[in-house]
Design brief:
The chain is an all-alpha fold. Helix 3 packs antiparallel against helix 5. It is globular and about 60 Å long. The termini are far apart.
Length: 318
């Protein structure tokens, strides 16, 4: 299907060149995004697509969102000007640097010039070996989960000099759930639900949701490996995940405004449920809210940082 994806990507490029005010580099960036996301969906369940996630994030944050910066959230936009979050160099100057750099990163990640996996060229076979190995274990997964949960709880009470050690150990609970899933231990689903429930509580209490998003994505990638899922279903899973992230981004400002002031300590979960319920009832309300859109843009547009570097070097710094 990859040749078809290339054709679809090129079609988006020509449509962009013909019907939009975007530059050639900007149209190429959108074309690359279309190809990358279709390729990612196709490979999901067939390969370990961890590197593809990094590639997609790079394309979105460094190539796609800067387009919004040049055509909407530019110097003429009041919010962008007030917060000094706008692209500091012209589009052609930015993309003539960043587009080849992104392509070079993709080539480096996807083409194994020096290191090829001759032992397990088929990643489904590798996963079957993993499942066969873990099927012999029984309580190791539960032990890892217990260490992770214990470390997660105790890290707040230990001296700061060793708190980071317990922070790292807390991630063993996510390693442990995969041991549990592929072993013969009973109550696997209950353990999985409990660990993700704890993750959700930890994320809501802190008002930081990046960890939950990345762990959830990793879980979907690993669980899908080896299953024959149709392309439309995989695309539906991806679109649902992207929509959930957008809703989460819309929830965060209102949720943090109520909880980070310290007046609602102990009520974080109920407040999160209220704000989330409101956003779900009006799922596209954030599209009409310029502040929420600008917050999303400023949070994810890493191109703005790169444009600052291109603006400052070598004009202000060596």
């Amino acid at each position: 299907m990859k040749p078809l994806f290339i054709i679809i990507g090129l079609a988006f490029y020509f449509l962009g060149e013909t019907f939009t005010p975007f530059s050639t580099y900007e149209c190429l960036s959108f074309s690359l995004f279309v190809y990358a996301i279709l390729s990612f969906v196709d490979d999901l369940g067939k390969k370990m697509v961890m590197l593809d996630v990094a590639i997609l994030i790079a394309i979105i944050t460094c190539l796609l969102l800067p387009i919004a910066g040049y055509h909407h959230f530019n110097f003429l936009n009041a919010s962008a000007r007030m917060w000094v979050i706008y692209m500091r160099v012209p589009s052609d100057q930015y993309y003539s640097f960043m587009f080849p750099a992104t392509i070079a990163m993709i080539v480096g990640m996807k083409i194994p010039v020096f290191f090829k996996n001759s032992t397990y060229p088929n990643q489904e076979t590798y996963m079957l070996k993993v499942k066969a190995y873990l099927s012999k274990s029984r309580w190791q997964g539960l032990i890892l989960v217990s260490i992770g949960v214990f470390s997660s709880v105790i890290q707040k009470f230990v001296p700061s000099s060793i708190a980071f050690v317990f922070f790292l150990l807390s991630y063993l609970m996510f390693v442990g759930i995969f041991y549990c899933l592929y072993s013969k231990i009973p109550y696997k689903r209950l353990i999985l639900t409990g660990v993700f429930g704890l993750l959700a509580i930890r994320s809501i209490s802190a008002g930081m949701f990046g960890e939950m998003v990345f762990i959830s994505a990793l879980t979907v990638i690993l669980l899908a490996l080896g299953y024959k899922i149709s392309f439309p279903k995989k695309l539906g899973i991806l679109l649902t995940g992207m929509f959930a992230i957008m809703i989460l981004q819309a929830v965060k400002p209102a949720f943090r405004k109520q909880t980070w002031a310290g007046r609602s300590q102990g009520r974080e979960i109920s407040i999160f449920a209220e704000v989330l319920g409101e956003k779900i009832r009006n799922p596209f309300s954030f599209v009409d809210d310029e502040r929420v859109l600008f917050t999303m843009y400023g949070r994810f547009n890493q191109g703005q940082i790169i444009s600052n570097v291109l603006y400052s070097v070598p004009s202000r710094f060596p």
